[in-house]
Each structure stands twice: as C-alpha cells, then as structure tokens.
Amino acid sequence: MKTSDHTPHASGFTPVDHRTAVAAETARFVAAVRDADLAAGVPSCPGWTLADLVKHTGSVQRWFSVLLRARIQEPPRSRDVDLRLPEQEDGYADWLAESASVAADAFAATDPNQPMWAWGADQHARFWARRMLFETLLHRADAELALGLRPAIERSVAVDGIDEFLVNLPFAGFFAPKVAELRAPDRTVRFRATDGDEGWVVRLRPDGFGLDAAHPATAAADATVRGTAADLLLLVYGRLSYDAKALAHEGDEQLLAHWFANSAF
Fold it and tell me: Which of 94, 120, 152 marks a domain boundary?
C-alpha cells in the first residue's frame, strides 16, 4: 500500500511533500551559511548568532528524527539527543546537511500515516515532518535576512505553512503561553493571499480561538491583512509587521495589535 506524506487540508490547498521539502530547505540554508561569518547576529532572532541558528535547526531535525523512529505515543520525558555537533563552527554547515540526511533516514523508516503523539492537531507521524519543514524554512529565512538577502519561498509551501501555523497555534500554549490571551467577544481576523484564492479566518471567542472554516468567503472580518502567501507566512511568524509595505491591512487595528502581540510562536 502506498503511503502519503501529505497532510489533509479541509480547505483544499495544494499538497506539499514535506519530507522532500525538508531536504530542499536545508540545502538552501546550508548554501546561505557555508561561507558566512557564523558569529554574525540574527536580527529576527534577538540574541542569536548564525551559529546558534544552525545549531538549533539541526538539533530540531535530529530530535524530531528520534521521535519518529521511536513512534512515540506520549509526550517525551527527555530531549537528550546525540547531536554529534562539531567542535569547530567551520564544520556546522556540513553538520546541518548531515542533519537533513538523519531526518531523511527517519522519514524512510516511518509510515507518515502512523498514529503518533504530537503536540498539535494532527496525531500522526506526518505532523513531525510538516513541523520540521517550517522550523527549517523559517530559520533559513532568518539566516538569509541576517545576510541581507530576501528569502524566496515557494507559494504552495507558503500556503501550507500559514495553514500549519494557524491550525496548530491553539495547541502551543505550553511553549508560547501568550496564546492564552487570544480571546475576545467573537472577533475575526482574516489573512488573504493576493497571489491566489486562499484565505484564512481566525475567530477569537471568550473561551479561546481557532480557524473558522465556516466563515463565508464574502463576509467581512473585523480585521484583514492581505499580501502574497510568502509575505503572509513571514507575517504570522513575526518576521514581518502587519504594517510593512509589502502588506495591506484594514479594519480593527487594536485587534490586529492584540493578535500579533500574543501569537508569537
């Protein structure tokens, strides 16, 4: 029986092969940092250097790979992983490339449809491949931004990433405690892609928040942000401000400020 790494989307977005995309994003990351000064700061991750960024991303890939191989059925009690990190930072780029190979081996050994514990909405192995992809992509973008480059993000991948972020954000309170503040008396925030037909409406309620798939496409939202899918992805992850030139916004600005002040991932 052929298995698929594609995460089902109720809204019909184009499927993304997350396992293949992890390898592609890691290769872009490696290319960006191979000849860079790893002591350079990363403005989008205050207090971090490029070396910290590489170490974090490779560590996440290796830790998620351990979880996949173990097919965990409950929250892990330890995050101890044999990182095999080089003593010298000039080996970090190759180490990051090797981390993607470790991940590829874990993907090959694991049915993506295998039931597994996950901290987010999708309780299957495929959750971890999808999460690994966007950890890698966003930190690749962080590295490029730190080096004065504008990150290029494939539109279908960006669309998938916005969906992944918004679907899982309600479950992220244990490491992003401010999401508990995302409450309001029935208020809606819309994210609208200007380079396609995709849109997402988040409804804030007195008891929490979440995607509102039933919100009519033609109905008004209390606040709306529009931009390309790539820019919206950078927006939801806090790499762009909603008042950036690349984006347009309308409606309740206090609601937008409240959302972005408390939705940091």
Answer: 152
103-138: pLDDT as tens digits: 999 999 999 999 999 999 999 999 999 999 999 999
Closest-CA residue to 126 (of 116, 138, 135, 134): 116
Q: Domain range spanning residue 67?
A: 18-152
DSSP 8-state code for residue 218: T
φ and ψ at 248, to 5 degrees?
A: -125, 140
pLDDT digits (tens, 9 = 90+) for 200-245: 999 999 999 999 988 887 789 999 999 999 999 999 999 999 999 9
Token pair listed for 263: 């939705």
Looking at the structure, tell me whether residues 133 and 49 fall in a common domain: yes
Whole-number Å distance between alpha carbons of 11 and 195: 17
Q: Look at residues 82, 87, 99, 68 and name the one whose alpha carbon lies nearest to residue 5.
A: 68
pLDDT of residue 32: 98
- DSSP E strand boundaries for the chain: 187-193, 199-205, 208-211, 223-227, 248-251
My answer on whether 180 and 122 are in the same domain is: no
Among 103, 121, 152, identify where a domain stops. 152
Which residues are registered as beta bridge partners of 239? Answer: none
Tokens of 55: 């170490």
Contacting residues for 24 by C-beta, under 8 A, at least 6 apart: none
Report the CATH number that the domain containing residue 234 is assigned in CATH.
3.30.1050.10
The token pair that represents 226 in the structure block: 């529009």
pLDDT digits (tens, 9 = 90+) for 156-189: 999 999 999 999 999 999 999 999 999 999 999 9
Is residue 48 a part of any domain in this protein?
yes
Distance CA 126, CA 16 (A): 11
Measured distance CA(199)–CA(134) in Å, rounded:
19
